[in-house]
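User: I'm preparing a small set of examples for a lab meeting where we compare how different chains pack in three dimensions. I only have the primary sequence for this one, and I'd like the structure in token form so I can line it up with the others. Please keep the answer compact; I'll paste it straight into my notes.
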Amino acid sequence: MAKGRPGVHTYREVIIRLRAGNGPRRIARDGVACRQLVRRIRDKAKDAGWLLPFVEAPSEEQVLELFSDELAVKVPGQVSTVAPFRSQVEEWLKSGCSVKVIHGALTRSYRFTGSYGAVLRFVQQVRSKEPEAFVPLQFEPGEVAQVDFGSGPLLPHPVTGKPTRTHIFVMTLAFSRHMYAEIVWDQKVRTWLRCHRNAFEFFNGIVARVVIDNLKAAITRACALDPEVQRSYEKFAESYGFIVSPCRPRTPRHKGRVEAGVKYVKNSFLPTRTFRNLADTNQQLMEWVLGAAGNRVHGTTHEMPLRVFAEMEKPALRPLPAETPELVVWSKATLHSNCHVTFEKAYYSAPFVLLRKELLVRASDRMVELWHENRQVALHCRAARPGQWMTIEAHLPPHKVAYLHRTPQWCLRRAEDIGPSCEELIKRLFAHRVLDRLSAALGVIRLADKYGKPRLESACRRAIAYDNVAYHTVKRILVQGLDQAPLEEEAGGQLNFRFVESHRFSRDLGSLLTQ
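Assistant: Understood. Below is the structure token output for the 515-residue chain.
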């Protein structure tokens, strides 16, 4: 089927085929025109007598004259309400104004009553008549590399085993078109930096400038004039000695060579291949980059990228640093009420006096540093797994730390220092089979601070004697001064705890029988 608006030559070809005996189905199957158009042409040509065998085939001028109503260029009958302000709209467009701004200016300054859609359609019509021209950029060897991400294949996740979407990192050298590609799980800052390092080591050199898109791992604020580079990427570029050159927002054509490289990987490498896991995918990808991709004849340069790289671009690259720079990720985090910040699903403590303050996190492969106002306030080893708590007790409030150390063993040591009765009472509190009595034990121990150790020891002895082992019992004895009252003793001057515990409120059998 012919694409676009059929011209006079299409009409004449249909007439020639009809004269040769071809039917509408045959002509439509050959892609000349649809069957409806063929029938319409057939009817008019038949009336004109052009299908008779002894009549000469018509010329293009004759066909144009007969089908002038169909082949004439149609002019819209409705004039846009924005047309009277065309010159002013064109000036605003050249200055970079958006459609919304233009609509507001027309309404405010010219009492324009048309809709926003009318302005939008008029602007689209103006722009369509003024195609924009582009100038191809030329680069020297070793000058520029362009970087971008693309969507990768579904691979089984190493933890869950479920098919998970991956990403393709591509760095293309602008001069030779030689590229480095890697399949990764995410587009986080650390992955972004690691892929850059792997690419530079693959090329065995560094370019002077890296052209990137405005992804969050690299640019924190996308702006044509004053973009802000992510601190981690800024430090990384400083370590390797290259310049970060972000594209203007929404202009991916400024890094068209890597855009084409990503498309080439997706269309030429991914189809017809099977992958077991991430390692297998990257191994096949590297073999393809150094093989089929590197030795192909590039459609623009008409040269093999790998040959141009080896002969011209590789000698122009800057050497790698003598020592591989450490990958460091900077991020912001707030110190929560639990005295910890959260970084990559792990928790790191900081001084409690900085609660609700914003801290800077500097994370390397082994260490995590926390900074506040250009001062390091905490240093931790990197957590080995998500959910791990890295805590330094000095960062916690002292009264909270003291409570953490008050364990049952601590209570027993304090009770032993007070006296045997207190120790016995604490042991009985902890002997409860169901209830946690740590709070009660701590309460009993704290009574020594107010009433003194001798009185607490006496109160514990009295509570044990009446088999009422509880915090409130000991406290009531001390408040009422019952710890000073004498206890019933046996003939040896010692308390009969066994008798008291088993028959504390009963009379002996002899006294009952004599009454």
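A couple of notes for your slides: Residues 86-128 form one domain. The longest helix spans residues 278-293.

User: Perfect, thanks.
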